[in-house]
């Protein structure tokens, strides 16, 4: 029989028993934060244990950010690659900040920014969930379970030590969602729509694909506030202010300082289907199941549980849970799927927290054991899959050492590499951007003076450049269509080394041409 008074947890009563009675109320607020503090600690340790050399994207963003910084400091330095035309986020935002941190503390410090951002996102999910479900019986376990499911899922753990614009962008979305819930649940002023809109617009500028979550953030303001008749008008106004703020900032950016970003937005986001290599739907679903299957199962179960009590809210949050993942599966795109799962987990984690909390409140041993087993499975699978995700790419340390020796011997050589970004980043103090060329389709054109200044592209461009000694060092791992077709030996090159990453077995072949080295 319920007495209307929430039972005090045994562990909290035991801790408070060591304190004088006068100090127990003030100590209680600190004791309540112990679970979330432990979750954040486990998240940080889980993320920081991951170790590998810079991934292609990390290297590209940090290298480009450093290049931009140099161009700001020296008018003679020109960023001629125009990263705003092909980046999926504003290059003058995260890449510059990441490069500043990289200058101060290397890749580890740049990755630490992502750790802080994802820890912040976990705190936002915890707070937002507790506010959203504060009508439930005490103690507030929904927020604790939501934070646990969010923080220790493989995609979140992976992004917590990955130096790209994903972590800061997703953290802003998480805080925008939490503010939407809090401002509507507590019936705050419509002025709170301004910071919500600012957070959403900045998240989109950092990473364009985050825009898919923005409508759900705005609708949260309306749906949460609509539950009480007296707050409906304020909720509608607050949502309108948030949407208008975001729209003004994004449109204003597109018309002023960010006008050049539209090309990158179109290429990497709105017209992405044209450049996507189609992956079978079942393959993508299998990948989601592998990386976050249990997490998504708990979130969907939470949506079904909430459907009986708050059907509109449940539908909205379920839609936010599957939107980003479902869209990418529908497009048949595997690239970055593991990262974009986080956009759904932001909305799904509170649902998982709600159902796990409800199961614990039943007090039945079977359900408590079931919850404990689910949490243990989330922890173990999150640790295992994040470790695998962090070693999808080969460590480039042995390759760096080999190429560095060649660069030291011939500082002015031009290098053709299939995936040059990790080397460009690790050798940025010894080489310039003009010394590196990739084998990406459409990235290289060659004007051959012996052919009447005819401009070659594709495989022909590389072959003519090799023949004319335009490149003196070639690094191939047969990972691109053009790289698979190139045969440097046909143009006077000799294979001088084979480099293998012992952990992954990935192999690079090094070719050099020693005649006519440019001075």
Q: How does this model look, in words?
A:
The chain is mostly helical and 519 residues long. It has two domains: 10-48 and 82-91 and 119-389, no CATH class; 397-512, no CATH class. It has 20 helices and seven strands. It has helices spanning 10-16, 24-31, 34-48, 56-73, 94-132, 142-151, 154-159, 166-185, 193-206, 214-226, 232-255, 261-270, 281-307, 311-331, 337-361, 365-389, 397-409, 421-426, 458-467, 481-485, and strands at 415-417, 436-437, 445-448, 454-457, 473-476, 494-500, 507-512. The strands form two sheets. The chain has a five-stranded mixed sheet with strand order 2-1-5-7-6, covered by helices on one side. Strand 3 (445-448) and strand 4 (454-457) form a beta hairpin. The longest helix has 39 residues, at 94-132. It is elongated. The termini are far apart. Mean pLDDT is 89; it is low at 1-7.
Cα-to-Cα separation, first versus last residue = 89 Å
Beta strand count: 7
Task: Specify the overall morphology.
Answer: elongated
Query: Order of SSEs, N→C?
Result: HHHHHHHHHHHHHHHHHEHEEEHEHEE
Weakly predicted, low-confidence segments: 1-7
Helix content: 55-70%
| Quaternary form | single chain
Helix-strand makeup class: mainly alpha
| Total DSSP helices | 20
Please outline the major beta sheet.
5 strands, mixed
Q: How many domains make up the 3D coordinates?
A: 2
Average pLDDT metric? 89
Estimate what percentage of residues fall within beta strands: 5-15%
Radius of gyration: 26 Å
Q: Order of strands across the biggest sheet?
A: 2-1-5-7-6
